[in-house]
Each structure stands twice: as structure tokens, then as C-alpha cells.
Design goal:
The protein is an alpha/beta fold. 28% of the residues lie in helices and 28% in strands. The chain is built from eight helices and twelve strands. It has two domains: 182 residues, P-loop containing nucleotide triphosphate hydrolases (Rossmann fold, 3-Layer(aba) Sandwich); 62 residues, no CATH class.
């Protein structure tokens, strides 16, 4: 259930809250009792192994899926900008980057031009969406999300397909946008070392909340050390996720190509 004006949520800096959200598919639990809050100017990042329910939670928040139990509060008149992990457009569908962005923001072309310059995608205007590289596509998707001038920006793996050298720059840009606009950001990321340096709060999700808190607190928490105990080079976007309680999952997540 999504409530746009739940009277229990009185802090107008609060953008989004989930209360005990659970979801099962074919009797298999996907999410169990998930509660979180995100405020103006906050970056909250979800981490966890593949199949942990991160994208499912985002889809429930966006109203694409319905939860089995629990509720979601959205601040009244909340504008959300959403950047999906991927967007596949068949090459037989002709649509340029310029047209794709104008579908999201048909007016205020000056704003669009400034945003394209900032994201370094102006030169792609006449390119077909289907011909873009992974990194180019991610920047176009981020631009499209920002054209809504969102109060809340939801990013599902924003560095997907971006090379290592471009990932840090992208996260720095996201931080700048948050600081300038005061928007909240809910992000899914596998780039653990970048997450820990560019987020206010981390939630480790594996169908349920394993641990959460400020990065500096989480990184020294015994639960976090159990999950991420096998250290890897901080210069690589890779981490080992060990989760041996209840689910018995051991997974290594590879860096984006």
C-alpha cells in the first residue's frame, strides 16, 4: 500500500518511508520486513548480493510491483527521477538521444542543454539510443532522471557499464547534484569502496536488512565484517559478500565492465 499523505509522518524533510514491506513470489520470500527512511539531502545506498531483493524493493517503491504486506509513505507532491539499471531499446526502433530526452522534458530546452553539457553527452544528440555504449547510456539515463527536477532520485546501479576511471567521476557528480539541489538519493550499488565514501547511510540487504548505519559505523560493525570480511583492493569495484546466517549465501560480485 502506498500512502501519499500518512499523518503519522510529520517531518516534511522526510521524502520516503517504507514500513515492514514484505514480498514473496511463488511462496519464495523476496523481501522480509523492510523498513527505511530517506530525507532531503541524504544519500542512502542499498548493497547486497544478486537476488537480495534490492531492485524488487525499488519497484515496489515506484509502484511497479505491489508488496504483500507493509506500507510506503511518499511525501505529498513528491517528484521522483528514476534511473533504471538498464534500458534495452531495439535497433529497429529509431529514436535519437535528443528525442529520448525531450520525451521526458518536452519544454525548457535550455535546462536540457545545460544538463547535457554537464554530463558530457551533448555530442550524442543525433546518435541512436540503440547505438550507445554502456557508459554513454548510463549518462543519458541519468540526464533523463534529472530532467524531472526530482525531490528524490532513485538510481539502480548508476555505474553499470561505466569503466573504472569514470565511476569515481560519476559518483562525484551525483554527490554534487545532491548538494546543489538538496534532493534525496536512493541508490543501489555494487561498488562498495565508492559507496562507503559517497553515501550518508548504507543498508545491506539480503531479503531482510542484515545491517545498516553510517558508512564509518557499518564498516566496523561485527555484522558487516562477517559479511565483507575477505578484504580486496580498495582500488577495485569488487567485494566479497559472505552471508552465512539463515540464507547460507556466499557470493562474489564482479566489477562492472
Amino acid at each position: 500500500m502506498i500512502a501519499s499523505g500518512n499523518t503519522k509522518e510529520t517531518d516534511m524533510k522526510l521524502l520516503l518511508a517504507t514500513h515492514s514491506v514484505s514480498k514473496s513470489v511463488s511462496s519464495k520470500p523476496i523481501l522480509q520486513d523492510i523498513s527505511l527512511k530517506i530525507y532531503e539531502g541524504q544519500i542512502l545506498t542499498l548493497i547486497g548480493p544478486n537476488g537480495a531483493g534490492k531492485t524488487t524493493l525499488i519497484r515496489i517503491i515506484l509502484g511497479i510491483l505491489k508488496s504483500d504486506t507493509g506500507s510506503i509513505y511518499l511525501r505529498p507532491d513528491l517528484r521522483i527521477g528514476y534511473m533504471p539499471q538498464t534500458l534495452r531499446i531495439d535497433s529497429i526502433l529509431p529514436i535519437t538521444v535528443d528525442r529520448f530526452l525531450k520525451l521526458a522534458q518536452p519544454t525548457r530546452s535550455g535546462d536540457m542543454g545545460a544538463l547535457q553539457d554537464r554530463l558530457e553527452i551533448s555530442h550524442l544528440n543525433e546518435e541512436q539510443i540503440s547505438s550507445l555504449s554502456g557508459g554513454e547510456m548510463q549518462r543519458v539515463l541519468l540526464a533523463r532522471a534529472l530532467l524531472r527536477n526530482p525531490h528524490l532520485l532513485i538510481l539502480d546501479e548508476p555505474a553499470q557499464g561505466v569503466d573504472i576511471s569514470g565511476q569515481s567521476k560519476l559518483y562525484d557528480l551525483i554527490n554534487e547534484i545532491r548538494a546543489e539541489k538538496g534532493c534525496g538519493i536512493l541508490m543501489i550499488s555494487h561498488d562498495l569502496h565508492l559507496v562507503m565514501s559517497s553515501t550518508n547511510e548504507v543498508i545491506c540487504l539480503n531479503r531482510h536488512v542484515c545491517c545498516h548505519g553510517k558508512p564509518e559505523d557499518v564498516s566496523s560493525d561485527p555484522a558487516f565484517l562477517e559479511l565483507f570480511g575477505a578484504s580486496v583492493s580498495p582500488n577495485l569495484a569488487i567485494y566479497a559478500h559472505r552471508h552465512n546466517h539463515e540464507h547460507e549465501i556466499t557470493e562474489k560480485i564482479k566489477p562492472s565492465s
